[in-house]
Known about the structure:
CATH superfamily: NADH Oxidase
Amino acid sequence: MTKDVFDCMRESRSVRSFKPDPIPEPTLTRILEAACWAPSAGNLQPWYFFAVKNSKAKQQLAQACFEQRYVAEAPVVVVILADPARSSERYGERGAQLYCLQDTAAAAQNMLLAANALGLGACWVGAFDEVKVQQIVEAPPRLRAVAIICLGYSIEQTPGIKERLRVAEVAKIID
């Protein structure tokens, strides 16, 4: 049973404390499938995902994330990479510089929502040494590390609904 997508959006938060319990393979596969369902410019799907379970590799990733220890403690760490060349083939420089990043961000958000719906905690990590991360996962040189998603069962207490700006403060409807 999964949660409603609106509940997932409202309830989701960055989780940085995880139980050591492994994530079942079918659950991890569903989360990766959700990432693949994200929209992308021209349906090019310029992404690649490295799901890291190896303890040594996770330790190295934590170091590459400027010593964010919870990265090593998460049962699975997904490194999301973009393929700028794939987007560039159709959209030129704008595809390489922007569209592939937007597309991988959409995939990351799908991953976060799917994790929440399946009862997992997650945290999007953006602070890392891109080159070191790419070396750790042995990514082909054409790929660019864009985001890291830590996944696992949370040991944190669930706080109330998070504060958000009202729609009227951030949106304008133009008729």
